[in-house]
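Final paragraph of the annual report: two paired records, presented back to back.
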Amino acid sequence: MRALVVEDDEDIRTLLFRILELEGLAVTAVATGAEASVAVEECEPAVTLLDLQLPDVDGLTLLERLRQARPSMGCIVVSGRSEEASRVLGLRLGADDYVVKPFSSAELIARIGSVLRRTHRPTSGSKVLERGHISIDLDTHEVRVGGEVVSMTAKEYALLVFLATSPRQVFTREQLLEQVWSSSRAWQDTATVTEHVRRLRRKLERNGDKPLIETVRGVGYRFSG
């Protein structure tokens, strides 16, 4: 399994390379957006760690390009931009997670592991979840809405599967952080969950349909399909 590191700071790039290598991943590390655009096609990474402050391109613009090139790839932003606006925009543009520098190696490893578990989970036999007008193929990770394939990020897919496998059960944002992100409020803002639910609703719900993911006011979310 391969990972891509996009980081212009040589020391941080080397650190990320070693962390991923110790986790048993084959690693490609680049310093610019141009190199990243080539590498994502050549090495087909399972996960990418992306800095936002690159010398040749805005990191958020690159994030959109990488997501379009490999929709199923896990993508974690590792950035010095700690303001909420940057975190929310990064998640809206397709990041599965957002880690602020300086970071804990243990925390980063946990988040990488969470993404990889969701995107490369082994399954036995073909299994498709049918929920209302959507179907979820657990082998191919393909989601169809009204028969049409819908592109999803790794974390969007993981959240959808978690909710869809327990219909009508209500989960708090804290529970979803723990179960889907392998994280907690101490590590990560629950706004991450809110943003991913918003993105799923936009992709799954059609005009006039009853919402598939309902908000239970004061508690959290549940899948109604």
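The closing record of the year follows.
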Amino acid sequence: MLHDKVTPYNNQKEKKEQVAEMFDNIANRYDLLNSILSLGIHKGWRKKCVNILKARQPQFILDVATGTADFAIACSDLNPKKVVGVDISEGMMEFGREKIKKLNLQSLIELQNGNAETVAFPNDSFDAIVVAFGVRNFQHLEKGLQNLFRMLKPGGQIVILEFSYPRNWLIKVGYNFYFSYVTPVVGKIFSKDVRAYSYLTESVKAFPNNEKFTDILNTIGYKKTYFKPLSFGIAAIYCGEK
């Protein structure tokens, strides 16, 4: 797939190694940049994801590509028994663990190194699996989604938050300008990693969004799939069940 070919540094390393290196490089500025570049609206998007899960009252939740643990922490509002966050960037998780400690959530939330394709929890382990802005970074998209499907309990739900591509031509023009020019410049100023935020733009453009992504979920075996555009289509929530 096209998105598999888009990598942060365009070198000989595997995509997952490049992604881990990129997030380690920007970890100390990631939360600040997230808030600046999304104008703070990413918090509202995440809250909508948590609200989708409320009716199911999931007890065991897996947060894939947890980063600095924002989604895992948001899931604590669901009163689960356990939230496990996995990520390939130790640098990002260091900041996540500090947040968890400050909120006194160490007994509820556990972070560990791992990626979607190879993390090896037993079959049917989780009532819910969540991913925020992480599926674009899977080295092999289908393989990662298949592994998540394996770990989801029958009847369990996956909720994925990801940048999307707006359909309205006027919004699309503004979106393209912001992502192509503003985002890389702001990223360069704050993170000193020139490629990290250029990669963000490239990976969003290459990602199979909207119906294309729900089609992939359907092919893997997820049921009752749907997507919900957010903020004029610049992001989307994707849902499915096992």
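Strands lie at 60-64, 82-87, 109-113, 126-132, 152-163, 223-230, 235-241. This concludes the annual technical report; the extension proposal builds directly on these records.
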